[in-house]
Amino acid sequence: MQPIPKRTVRVRLEGADADVNEATALLALLPGFARGRVRLGEISIPHVTRQGMFRYMDLYILDSAPDGAEQ
Fold first, then answer.
1. Within a domain: residue 70?
2. In angstroms, rounded to a whole number, what is the distance separating the alpha carbons of residues 40 and 13?
3. Cα separation, 61 vs 38, whole angstroms
4. Mean pLDDT value across residues 9-14
5. Maximum CA pair distance of the chain?
6. pLDDT tens across 27-64, in order?
7. Which of 15, 16, 8, 68 is nearest to 38 (CA)?
8. Residue 10: partners with Cβ closer than 8 Å, 6 or more residues away
9. Which of 10, 24, 66, 71 lies most in the core, judged by the most C-beta atoms within 10 Å?
10. Domain count, the chain
11. Residue 7 CB burial class (10 angstroms; 0-12, 13-18, ≥19)
């Protein structure tokens, strides 16, 4: 079976600790809403800044939905 081609999008979330954590949790729900077209990759550890923190997150956009996922 061939791997599904994917494109990587690196997202930087920056702001108050609680806001970044909430946005991270909401983005983790994205694969379910995207019907298998998006996968969540690595989420970095929090990096502290003077204004709060930031995190990086990798999202993979798949060129086709995995088998069994609705289109």
1. no
2. 14
3. 5
4. 95
5. 48
6. 999 999 998 899 999 999 999 998 899 999 999 999 87
7. 8
8. 56, 57, 58, 59
9. 24
10. 1
11. exposed
Place of tokens 């999008």: 9
In the block, residue with structure tokens 């069994």: 68
Residues 6+ away with beta carbon under 8 Å from 27:
11, 13, 40, 57, 59
In a domain, residue 56? The reply is: yes
**Segments forming the whole domain that contains residue 12:** 6-62
Phi, psi dihedrals of residue 53, rounded to the nearest 5°: -160, 170
Q: Is 28 contained in some domain?
A: yes
CB–CB of 41/57 below 8 Å? yes
Q: Angle at CA 16, nearest 5°, toward 14 and 18?
A: 110
Give the pLDDT band of residue 65 (cuts 50, 70, 90).
low
**Closest by CA position to 64, among listed 43, 30, 42, 34:** 34
